[in-house]
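Usage example:
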Amino acid sequence: MSRRLIALFVLVPHLALADESIAEQPADEASDQLPDQSVGASIGIAGGGRVTPGGLRLSGHYLYQLSAQDWFDGTASFTFGGGGAECFRDRMDYVICDHGFADGRGLEVIAAVRRYFAAQGKFRPFARLGVGVSVVRFGDDDVTGIAIPLHLGGGVRANVAEQVAVVAQAELVAGIGRFDRGMGTEPQLGIAVTAGAEFRLP
Amino acid sequence: MRALILLALLVGACGDDHVSRTLGARCDRPDDCADRCLAPSADYPGGLCTVDCFSSGDCPDGAQCIESEGGVCLYACREPRDCEFLGPGWSCKAEPLRSDQTQQVLVCRGD
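Running the assembly step on the lines above writes:
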């Protein structure tokens, strides 16, 4: 009996320690846990050309958990590019725009889904797929258009504080737009690389 | 990712290689061109964006600086077929060079 009591007294503290270590584990994992809801802001560069705007990209995000792996990512993006008049009429009298990689301006609202994958150390990789509606403007050519771009990309997220994470992502954008000045429907293709911060919402 | 960037560059590179706002585009007024518009006429059917020049070195590749209009760049040619991309009414004609008016070169102009 006494042996059993001694064994109990020896084991209980170890069990308690074991419980503590288990209790600590979720705390470690919590550093990688993804919030149900968060908001974020990012900055980067967008590359376009022809009738796809490029330049400085500023975005705001609202993220909402949909399932264990998927988050809704509602984004509003502004693209600020430069460039001068680059449209002309070819010999068939079609209007062609030959804007550079970082020309034009755009405002876009995107509905996307972010799918997170297993954490790699401190980093949590994700893929992102979305569709947007954008207004595109090339002022010097007086060309305006409305486009529906698809977004396909990915990135990584890392928590840097309890409520704050940093995110970097790259994406390919492809779609079609309807432009004025007799241009009609034109394809769009571009890329964007951005980085920013996200803040957990209560 | 590298493949995506390559695809973007390839699509961006597609287009009409012959004409641009600098040389060859149709025009009605100077704003239609990077430099100068030769307004639609029998000499320039549909109008032609071009560049003021003093010698052929001032012109884009494939163009010669001729004496007409105070010195403008026109597409060089060897036969009428070379000017067909500019549309109906264009032909290959001999014109004096701006830098040496005793020398004639073949360029695309209206019939």
